[in-house]
Amino acid sequence: MRINDVKDLKKIADRYLAEVGKYEHTIYVCGGGGCLSSKCQDTKAFIDSYIKYRGLSEKVNVVFTGCMGTCAMGPVVLIEPERTYYVHVTPERAKDIIDSHVIAGDVIEEYTFFDNALGKHIPCIDDIPFFSEQVQIVLNKCGKIPFDSIEAYVAKGGFTAEAKALGMTPEEIVDEVTRSGLRGRGGAGFPTGIKWSAGMKAPGENKCIVCNADEGDPGAFMDRSAIEGDPFCLIEGMTIGGYAIGAKQGYVYCRAEYPIAIERFNKAVEIAREYGLLGRNILGSHFDFDIELRIGAGAFVCGEETALMESIEGDRGEPRQKPPFPFESGLFGYPTIINNVETYYNIAEIINKGADWFASYGVGRSKGTKVFALAGDVVNTGIVEVPMGMPLRKLIYEIGGGITDGKAFKAAQIGGPSGGCITEQNLDTPVDYESLTALGAIMGSGGLIVMSEDTCMVDTARFFLQFIQDESCGKCTPCRVGTKRMLEILERIVSGKGTLEDIDTLNGLANVIKDTAMCGLGQTAPNPVLSTIANFREEYEAHIVDKVCPAHICSALAKYYIVPELCKGCTLCARNCPVYCINGKAKTIHTIDQDKCIKCGTCISNCSFGAIVRK
Amino acid sequence: MSDVVKTLTAEELERRANYEKLANVIDLYSGKEGCLIQVLHAAQDIFGYLPYEVQQFVADNMGFSVSHVSSVSSFYSFFSTTPKTKHEIKVCLGTACYVRGGKALVEKLQELLGIGIGEATSDNFFSIHITRCVGACGLAPVVVVDEDVHKQVKPGDLAGILEQYRGAEV
Ligand SMILES: Cc1cc2nc3c(=O)[nH]c(=O)nc-3n(C[C@H](O)[C@H](O)[C@H](O)COP(=O)(O)O)c2cc1C
Ligand code: FES
Question: Do residue B64 and residue B31 come from a single domain?
């Protein structure tokens, strides 16, 4: 059926709400990427059949949703109306929950969310700080509706913004977006309204609007979650953008590593076409618009906007020289506006609730919210959305539940391979574009890796440079050769062969590459190195001068010792040592010849008395 | 004998069906701009990898030179010109594994499977690869099959490990 106006939308919403309103309980099963890895399909299939078996089909509605946020605790399940949040819901647990909670009315507290910071189970989702401290604009439907139901999306107010926008002039839309203060969420934070205004004013019959869903930062999974959990919102945001700039064709460029996002989005596009929400005369207007999804093929540089356009055109994803800028001559030579996934997810709410409402969240020049993928040594790994300006400490400790295993915090790496790290002393910095840049980090796209005392910062810098080396497209010399030289120096340092001069050489090279690389990949590649040198110079020096890795990560610098008090002289370690560097007769205390030791760790795994330590 | 003939024709039939499928995909994209990468994805789905002949076919049917198709396919890590085997065996030859007998494991594996390093068995079931260090030095020597880490492997254990994967098939 075609939706032609707001009345049709209301009809669909009313029908859907009446339909779901008749159930006594609704069981939301998370079908996000994290939970799928924990086999939530099995849980969902079990719940479906058990509900039928218990004759509850009329009373209980079972819904498969997108990511709810606490991805490490999957499969997770939310039950309404009580709003009880269950974690690690295996089919066995699901049976207990249906028997006890749904049928007998007794919540099973020990299966509910455990708050690490507070040290107790919190059954109701609204009382859990992980959720209650969030402000969700982008994710306001993700995890709360079945991802494949356009009716459910419409019942939550979906497509009303689009209907409203089609009644406005493009200038009015661009003005609203500009006044909202929305800035691009793909990394650089360019004001979206200004970009759209340039797109709107660019002359041309054919224009393109593109969504960047390449999400290349290793450790980031926000965009993917949004698309998988609420694909219609991307269609709505892009359609409004298309109308504002005068584009008839939209493209979504999604990385090939995200097959679920690709499948769900393509399905949503098909459904939207059936309902007349894509295609000709959208919502009874004179506006024609369609969207096509293009799949990437495994190249980080294709997240850079000009390389991305090369890739959509079917070529090698090598960046183009700017100018001309995409809004002048972009995809297939047409004026093109390109935005990140999360940027588009803000649009509908801005149109519906207004620029002032949006700008009431956030601080300074950073308005609205930001979605983060929390990962690393943090208890509540997952997806969170917080108002701009929230102190990092609150994000990590209250929402994130603190550091795993009670370890000490060392740094938060923000912005991925283009970013930097935030240290303990700066934990109270508000998370906004300007404050993070001032600290040598960047907002980035939302990857936030928490690192405990067990992380070696030199090795981390080396890791990111290795990544850059693998992903550099090779077109310009500073990036291709310069980062290779930097990587070689770092490899020297982590293997104990560095010199103090190396630190200066790294700094020098880094600054040259920043200034001379052709695209953002090379220009930002040195950031993790500069940031770790600035914040953890003493760790570099420890590797170079003392030949030790303070976090005991770099194996070339590790040393193995036998604790005399614990050694029983059993000779097991000596007999298993591949290079025969352990001395000592039976029943006497053994010692390790440090000069010969190859740090393989075989002795540790053979000792039954825990007498060997690695330092 | 007749079985061999049958499998051969079945293979040939499959080959033709695959090219027909690919031709259909190319047709489907014919009206649209810049679809080479999308077509290569489809081709890799159909054939499992992108051998020269397939790239040639794509080039001919889309009006590109083979060198252009190849320059694109080689840029992206997702595309492979060698068939991926069902299971990939990676033998660690980091320092610890090397000294603890990793080399003997490589030799034994080559002997058992009759293939060299970087090669695949004729049924595309196994391939042998070398990795530098998988960070499991305390368990040396290790052999990683797909994602499973097998620890403290002796040459005599290898036949049994291979059997685990072959056995799981039937
Ligand atoms: C190497 C590199 C990788 C990038 N990767 C992404 C990415 O994965 N996703 C993204 O949205 N933007 C990425 N960007 C930023 C884009 O070039 C572009 O600025 C962004 O898509 C614009 O959208 P926005 O204004 O909504 O942020 C990358 C930039 C560079 C230099
Ligand atoms: S995938 Fe289920 S909570 Fe994120």
Answer: yes
Nearest ligand for residue A419 CA: 1
Q: Chain B interface, mutation test: which of A266, A290, A301, A315, most B Cβ atoms within 10 Å?
A: A315
Phi, psi dihedral angles at A548 (to 5 degrees): -130, 150
Q: How much distance in Å is there from the Cα of A89 to the middle of ligand 2?
A: 12
The letter for the amino acid at A169 is T
Residue A377: what pLDDT? Answer: 84
Cα–Cα distance measured from residue A395 to residue A379, given in angstroms and rounded to the nearest whole number: 12
**SS3 string of A97-118?**
HHHHHHHCCCCCHHHECEECCC
Residue range A183-217, pLDDT digits in tens: 999 988 999 999 999 999 999 999 999 999 999 88
Q: What is the pLDDT of residue B140?
A: 63
Residues A347 and A248 in one domain: yes
Task: List pLDDT tens digits, range A327-354.
Answer: 999 999 999 999 999 999 999 999 999 9
| ipTM of predicted complex | 0.88
CATH of the domain at A73: 3.40.30.10
Give the 3-state secondary structure of residue A42.
Answer: helix
Helical segments of A4-98, H only: 6-21, 33-37, 40-53, 91-97
User: What pTM value is reported for the model?
Assistant: 0.89
Q: What is the distance in angstroms between the Cα of B100 and the nearest Cα belonging to chain A?
A: 6
Domain that holds residue A466: 457-546
DSSP A493-552: HHTT---HHHHHHHHHHHHHHHHH-SSHHHHHTTHHHHHHHHHHHHHHHIIIII---TTS
Could you write out the three-class secondary structure of A253-297? Answer: EECCCCHHHHHHHHHHHHHHHHCCCCECCHHHCCCCEEEEEEECC
Instruction: Kindly state whether residues B115 and B61 are assigned to the same domain.
Output: no
The distance of B35 to chain A (nearest Cα, Å) reads: 5
Residue in A35, A371, A372 to alter for ligand 2 test, most ligand atoms within 8 A of Cβ: A35
Alpha-carbon distance of B83 to B73, in angstroms, equals: 14
User: What is the predicted pLDDT for the residue at B132?
Assistant: 57
Residue A7 covered by a domain: no
- Does one domain contain both A181 and A157? yes
Q: To which H or E segment does residue A554 belong?
A: none
A 278-317 residues with CB < 8 A to B: 292, 294-299, 311-317
Give the mean model confidence (pLDDT) for residues A226-253. Answer: 98
Amino acid at B13: L
In chain B, the residue whose alpha carbon lies closest to the alpha carbon of A292 is B32
CB atoms within 10 A of CB B137: 23
Per-residue pLDDT of chain B (170 residues; tens, 9 = 90+): 455 566 678 889 999 999 999 999 999 998 888 999 999 999 999 998 999 999 999 999 999 999 999 999 999 988 988 888 889 898 887 655 665 667 779 888 998 999 998 888 988 899 998 775 554 444 668 898 886 778 778 888 999 999 999 887 65
The pLDDT of A75-89, averaged and rounded, is: 97
For residue B129, how far is the Cα from the chain centroid?
11
In B, which residues are within 8 Å of A266 by CB distance?
Answer: none
Nearest chain B Cα distance for residue A99, angstroms: 37
Instruction: Quick: pLDDT tens for A411-460.
Output: 999 988 889 999 999 999 999 999 999 998 999 889 888 888 988 899 88
Residues B91 and B29 in one domain: no
Burial A556-575 (b: 16+ CB within 10 A, else e): ebeebebeeeebeebebbbe
∠ at Cα A454 (A453, A455), nearest 5°?
90
Q: How many structural domains does chain B have? A: 2
DSSP character string of A154-178: HHTTTTHHHHHHHTS-HHHHHHHHH
Contact of A9 with A159, CB cutoff 8 Å: yes
Measured CA to CA, the distance from residue A244 to residue A162 in angstroms comes to: 11
